[in-house]
## 1
Amino acid sequence: MKDKYAVILGAGRGSRMESRDPNHSKVAYPILGKPLINYVIDAVKTLDVKEVYTVVGYGGEATKECVKDFSKVVWQREILGTGHALMQVKELADKDGDIIVVGGDTPLLTPDTLRKVYHKHEKNDNALTICTSVFENPTGYGRIIREKGSYRLLDIREDKDCNDEEREISEVNAGIYIINNKLLQEYLPKLSNNNAKKEYYLSELVKLFNKDGYKVDSYVLEDAQDIFCVSDRFQLSYAAKVIRKRVNRKLMLSGVSIEDPETAYISPDVVIGRDTVIKPHTTITGNCHIGEANFIGPNTTLLNVTMGNDNNIQNSTLENVKISDGKEIGPYAFLKNEEIC
């Protein structure tokens, strides 16, 4: 079994978020109270990686605060492309195994998808495996160049470097790479910035590996939603809606009643016991651990709340509160930093 390491790319500017704060990184924006980059870290950690490295740049201090408990932090002081980002992770230079590279702005990426990609990479003994997907509107994405007739992956052409014929290609680079690290370290210095943006692209490895006879393969994603990239606040709200639906479904299938899933906002890290009922317009985020057979809501907000069983909380806001069993709180209570036994 090869060692696995993950690199999360989180150095981008995120100018389309239109923030007044230049130090607020895109990947630090929250979804259900959790930074969007942390969803990516959670997904890659399911592959039992030995270490996660997050590359930060613009707004790097904000990103660092989000990930420092879950990942090592590497600075990319100049934003010169994905290949350049990998060059900054010096600690990988002497590691054996595979490197998994993903974008930090893809919070809908699922562990199941990553497992499937890695399984194909390992089973076929690939030097490099990339993810691709098919988009109706591929503008902005690198196009997948395949050999006519054999369908063999030849190259990835970045959007600004495509000719008119290549721009018509609908199969795109999904931005997920699994790379043999010894080869990665050998070929990083060979990357060129001879392109429209004068950047060092990790995608150039496809052409370089092919040229030298190393095995390059691809995994075509069944659901393009997995690599949905958050670039602005509208896209952030879309990702939040998808994640909220996933979280609520998982809770309901585990025995929690959510009367109106469209108005329940629950963080994926929240733990809720069986037969608890979540009433409409309820938000539960942060480090919350809720026991069984509780009634919570309507119009209730819980942040960092621990409670036992058989409680009734309605029309109230609780923050950093501990509650035992069988308590009734509300309506219209505001409790902070309290313990109710």
## 2
Amino acid sequence: MSDGVIMLWVLITLALIVIVGIVYKDCNIGLFGIAFAFLIGSWVGGAGTYDIIGYWPTSIMFILIVTSWFFGYASLNGTLIGLADRIVYATRGVPWFSPISVFLTAFMISGLGIGVWGIVFVAPIGFIIARRGNFNPLLVVIATNTGALATGGLQWAAGGPTNTGLLMTAGWDTQEASELAVQFGYASIIPCFVAYLICYFLLKGYKASKVEMEKPVPFTDTQKKTLAVLVFVLLANMLPLVFYFLCPNEMTLYLKDHCNIQFWSVVGAIICMFLKLGDEKEIIAKKIPWNAVILICGVSMLIQVAVQHGLSDVIGNWLNSNFPVWMMPAAFALFGGILSFFCSAMSVVYPLMLPMIYGMVVNGSTVSALACITALILTACYTGMCPFSQNGALMLSSADEETKNYLFYRMISWSVVLMIISVIYALLGGYNV
């Protein structure tokens, strides 16, 4: 069967399983992705069984497990929530600053190393602040999403190595992928600030009332030890990079390349285990996002079938032929944002579209790879706050019933607003800065 027919079957199947995921919200479409990867890729496409198994993104799965395991200790014993409470308490006296404090809390917790998973810890606190401060809970969703995204891609955060793995899977070699991932981490900060500030004024966050909350209780001994381990892991990831920037040589380069969040997350989890800072069995059962792991990796297998048969090159060539270079970041922002409304950005959008950017670059296009990557990933994450997507569902799950009913359709419409902001930002050349 021809490559074109295989690609068509994958796209039709992908659309169908996304619809199944929307209708039957409790079913994991990752399993369907695995099944159809074998049916289309092996039974129809002729690939070997072990070739299909090889499409399972091992590096992404490993990163999700080890980082969630480590940060599970801080989540389980209340260290992260205690840290967020103190940040909010410190800003309680300035009403207009309350919605911004939610953004900064997500910004800081994500930047401490947990990455975009910081939304899980910040959203519940944010909804309480919105209720006390009498401002629109939509600002909590947007602040949590954009704040965590702004620093979630930094090299020492969980998203940094994940993005490196995605770029390597897309075609870049290890060194190029690592450099692009680091550049993306810093390039994300300003667009996320801009997007949130626009929404802050549109939703009149400056009219918030004064927050009334009690002084946070002191950290327990367990939380103090956990906080110390978090700081240790953060510094162990950050300092080699700082030393390399200040004094580039073979030793600092070696340390920069080998000190990563994966290794130090394992070390941190071992320290937490020996210090008895949490029950590792409970962490493995409750804090590692197994559902997300299966969804992300399973659908990635199906996407990889289409990529192996040339889908990325076909769409990439079409974009390259029909859009001028200066519009490419906006095109990727638009396509990535639309796709992310209905499916996981990490399991569907990135594996599908990042190879297109790589193909355009290696085929001689003058388009900025960094601008296209940044526009794609940020916009896909902006619309990822839609309740049909993973991040939106996670944030919505932490709200009370009244807030859920209020937010559901508004999260969809404001996902569109964020996507429009991002596309306009791209057309104005913001992602090229």
## 3
Amino acid sequence: MSNWKPINKTYLYDGTLEGFLSLVFDCFVSQSLPHKIEVENNYLSNFLEQPLILKTDSQKAKQVLAGIEKNIGYTTLYNIYYAFLSNEKEKEIDLLKYMIDGFKFGPKINHRLTISHVSKVMNRKKRSFGECHRLKGLLRFQELNNQLYYASIHPDNNILEPLGHHFIARFPSQNFVIHDKNRDICFLYNGNEYQIVDSTNLKIPNISEEEQKYQELWKLFYQTISIHERKNPRCQMQFMPKKYWKDLIEEP
């Protein structure tokens, strides 16, 4: 990053991956490294700085993606995607620095873990991917009265989209909704295409009678096979963190 010019400026974008990659494109063109990068809706204005709002441009984003895949490799794209889904602050600056060094070192950048921003990107990617992987097995769909399948989740990271794609691959003809209650957004799939929408005013229909019967049977089975004397909440939490219990049908 020796040729890059650090500037005491805050760049704002719309919070999407496409918006962030558009910002990255503009940074590469100007060879400037902003002091901070923040989501426009989350930014608290103050009289000490004048932020620069950068607009989303799909063509710029595509050029950045193509450049990364060609010069740094598909693995780096994978790392960037999952690290971007992290809920941690300052992820954007670390990702920008990671990409700058990536174009300098090529695919070898992923092995330079002694570089602070590289190790931070890898750790964020690991946490986001790990949470997504866990929820693929823990997510519980319920059949609603309108023959729609619904599941609620409370993830730490914004992993709704990759999780939704996983279930599209498993149930390509099934209508379903995955509801991220921590962010008030829903992944909607109608058997043909998907959409991620705001769920602030979402009204969930009641579960179907058949679903209610299956839930009662499952709870009865769970209670029947459990041995009260051997109940070990601490051990349960090691295999299934307590934060996920609220979205389960059975009660651990």
## 4
Amino acid sequence: MTVPTIALNNQTTIPQLGFGVFQVPPAQTADTVTKAFEAGYRHIDTAQMYQNEQEVGEAIKASTIPREELYVTSKLNNGYHRPDDARRAFDETLQKLGLEQLDLFLIHWPLPTLYDGDFVSTWQTLAEFVADGRARSIGVSNFQPAHLDRIVAETGVVPAVNQIEVHPYFTNEDARAASIRHGIEVEAWSPIAQGKVLDDEVIGKIAASHGKTPSQVTLRWHIERGDIVFPKSMHLERMRENFDIFDFSLTPGEVSAISALDQGESGRTGPNPDTFDYVPA
């Protein structure tokens, strides 16, 4: 089954469905990514703070999939925002993944209360990686509207994507709208609200009417809204289930009914980017 691609603002494309490795233990990552390849995934989303880039690289090296058919994303560790640190960290990411070029590299969190509030110089540093050809695209993650406005105004460099928390209980409309206004594609992390949608009555009824699972219907909701998603599972059967979302569609009414489940800020499952200040020890 062919996964749709989304055109980014720099004339590159990205598969709309990918596979995430957040919280996949390093010792199990290579096997998990290999299973994801078997299920059909070609877009892998990792991060320096996930501590499993090396193992993602092992799975890529062991596969017979041509490099040009893979799309690999990683993200900058919160402890490496200063330009020289970011440069060293990016070098290490390429080394661990065993790649000469990364498809997409993101600032993982804006951390506006740290580094004297300077995430602009960090963003300028990421632009160097595109200029020297070692990154095809760069973007941000968890950036709020004001953060996006600032980096675009101060650098003129528009992120290709903004990876933010989005799911039926937290549709994050302000950040989505700001991203779209700048021509930035939205990537949705925690797309099924850490499994909370599986017991939702509204989603369950829609799923039953299509002969699909609540997870499949929720992922389809994202797809129809234009989100890029990368669900995570360590089980091949569930990986295949999450991949099997392109043989049906939701009606506009069904999309609206799922969107109406939004709980605003109280529906957020992760940290608030305006105050999040975690730096790994």
